[in-house]
């Protein structure tokens, strides 16, 4: 009779199976599931590291339309898809002038610490017939303060109705180009280029674009913004 192996008294020639530590395996699985859940449930802004600050007036504050239809919200959605490391903060106020923006800019910069500032002000100065030189000085200070924080600036110009006279409208328009040249910043001459004169693109006031026009507004901005990202 053949003797049984001393290593396994119950079965000849076999090796003892080591017990499996199921506690470690269970803990690893639970941790993996928790991390996966966090990745799926965290909002896109939680992953963002860089901020675009939109600092404008009613044209950027979705005046007369739902906020979710405005070009700034559309920009936020586009960045979430194409540049998820970027987030958008909208500090635009309907009716804002360059003087009001100047009073608010320091607080906005401190609060949002943006890498890019989209500066879209001046239209209300023009509609109120304010001195174009004063408007330019206010915008220049906003640009300088933004650049002092290390932010890049995209300046967006606007046109005003011709009823103020050709001399005023020309002087108003020229302020933006001079600012862009003097401060060497990115520049979109007219936010509503190829939009304001198209059917269905402007609200009844003739000043603010409709919801249908907002994707076109975003296209104008995106052309200048994308290389800055």
Describe the structure.
The chain is α/β, with parallel strands linked by helices. The chain has a single domain, classed as Rossmann fold (3-Layer(aba) Sandwich). Helix content is 43%, strand content 11%. The chain has 7 helices and 5 strands; from the N terminus they run H-E-H-E-H-E-H-H-E-H-E-H. Strand 4, helix 6 and strand 5 form a beta-alpha-beta unit. Helix 3 packs parallel to helix 5 and helix 5 packs parallel to helix 6. The N and C termini lie far apart (83 Å).
Label this structure with key terms.
alpha/beta; five-stranded parallel β-sheet; 7 helices; 5 strands; 43% helix
Please estimate the helix content: 40-55%
Measured distance between first and last alpha carbons: 83 Å
Mean pLDDT: 88
CATH superfamily: SGNH hydrolase
Largest sheet: 5 strands, parallel
Strand-residue fraction?
5-15%
Number of helices: 7
Which oligomeric form is depicted?
single chain
Report the order of strands and helices.
HEHEHEHHEHEH
Question: Any guess at the CATH architecture?
Answer: 3-Layer(aba) Sandwich
Assign an overall shape.
Answer: globular
CATH class category name: Alpha Beta
Poorly predicted spans: 1-17
Q: Which structural category fits the helices and strands?
A: alpha/beta
The total domain count is 1
The CATH topology name reads Rossmann fold
**For the largest beta sheet, what order do the strands appear in spatially?**
2-1-3-4-5
| Whole-angstrom Rg | 29 Å
GO molecular function, one term: phosphatidylcholine lysophospholipase activity
Pfam family, one: Lipase_GDSL_2
Protein name: Acyl-CoA thioesterase-1
């Amino acid at each position: 009779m053949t003797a049984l192996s001393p290593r396994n008294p119950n079965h000849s020639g076999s090796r003892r199976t080591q017990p499996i530590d199921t506690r470690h395996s269970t803990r690893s699985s639970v941790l993996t599931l928790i991390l996966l859940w966090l990745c799926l449930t965290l909002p896109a802004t939680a992953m963002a590291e860089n901020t675009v600050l939109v600092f404008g007036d009613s044209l950027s504050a979705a005046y007369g339309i739902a906020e979710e239809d405005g070009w700034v919200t559309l920009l936020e959605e586009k960045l979430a898809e194409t540049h998820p490391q970027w987030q958008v903060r909208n500090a635009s106020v309907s009716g804002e002038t360059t003087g009001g923006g100047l009073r608010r800019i320091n607080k906005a910069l401190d609060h949002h610490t943006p890498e890019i500032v989209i500066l879209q002000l001046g239209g209300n100065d023009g509609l109120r017939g304010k001195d174009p030189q004063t408007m330019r000085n206010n915008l220049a200070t906003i640009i300088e303060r933004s650049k002092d924080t290390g932010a890049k600036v995209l300046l967006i110009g606007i046109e005003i109705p011709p009823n103020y006279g050709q001399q005023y409208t020309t002087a108003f328009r020229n302020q933006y180009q001079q600012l862009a040249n003097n401060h060497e910043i990115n520049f979109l001459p007219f936010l509503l280029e190829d939009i304001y004169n198209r059917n269905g693109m402007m609200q009844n006031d003739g000043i603010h674009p409709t919801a249908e026009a907002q994707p076109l507004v975003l296209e104008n901005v995106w052309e200048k913004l994308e290389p800055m990202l």
